[in-house]
Amino acid sequence: MSKYVKNLITEHYRRRLAGVDAALLVNVVGLDANRTRALRKDLAEKNIHLLVVRNSLARRALQGTPLAKAFENVTGPTAICWGGEDIVALSKEVMKYASDEKYAPFAAKGGVLDGEALTAEQVKEISKWPSRQELLAQLAGRLLGPAGALMSALAGPGTTLAGQLKQLAEGEKGDAPAAGESGG
């Protein structure tokens, strides 16, 4: 490959991965064209991108970026996945396809998160984390839980008092005709 072509490919990687700060490295060797197309289509529907790269050119293209550490010790054919809602959602999708027999040789090789390299085991662990939506739901539940308990505590005596006042009012209405009847 000529130096000119290598520079073009390096620049292409740089443009495609500009602004990406978290990504996963995967192995796609062994997937035939049909399964690769199906995998890319499924990932694209979830806003996840898959790019097969040459390690040396990717290493050169990503120098000085948050993704640089991902390619420090990578060997063999590699593809890079990025996108989705966040790194947790991305990890969940990658691990889902890695466990699917249809995409048998597809597997996580590592990645990068906050400028730190990840191993395949760490990617698997991240895939077990709660998603952003789940964390927001947990936070909302924890914030609303004490407020709901407080409202119940405040409303309880008020409801009891209102019930007692209603009974007294109904009792007075019921006593007034009875008193009128006995007095007449």
List the strand order in the largest sheet. 2-3-1-4-5
The CATH class of the largest domain is identified as Alpha Beta
**What percentage of the residues does DSSP assign to strands (E)?**
15-25%
Tell me, rounded to a whole number, the average pLDDT. Answer: 85
What is the total domain count? 2
Order of helices and strands: HEHEHEHEEHH
Give the number of DSSP strands: 5
Q: What does this molecule look like?
A:
The protein has 184 residues and is of the alpha+beta class. The chain folds into 2 domains: 3-129, 2-Layer Sandwich (Alpha-Beta Plaits), CATH 3.30.70.1730; 131-184. Helix content is 58%, strand content 15%. The protein has 6 helices and 5 strands, in the order αβαβαβαββαα. It has helices at residues 3-16, 33-45, 55-61, 87-99, 120-126, 132-183; strands at residues 23-27, 48-53, 78-83, 107-113, 116-119. The protein has a 5-stranded antiparallel beta sheet. A hairpin with a 2-residue loop joins β4 and β5. α1 packs across α3. The longest helix has 52 residues, at 132-183. It is elongated, with a radius of gyration of 31 Å.
How are the SSEs ordered, and which strands pair?
Elements lengths: L2 H14 L6 E5 L5 H13 L2 E6 L1 H7 L16 E6 L3 H13 L7 E7 L2 E4 H7 L5 H52 L1
Antiparallel strand pairs: 1-3, 1-4, 2-3, 4-5
Helix pairs in contact: 1-3
In short:
With 184 residues, the protein is an alpha+beta fold.
